[in-house]
Amino acid sequence: MAYTQDDLSAVQTAIISLATGKRVVRVMLSSGKTIEYDTAGLKDLKTLRSEIQAELNAAAGKRRFFRTVTSKGL
Question: Which InterPro entries match (predicted)?
Answer without folding.
Answer: GpW, GpW_sf
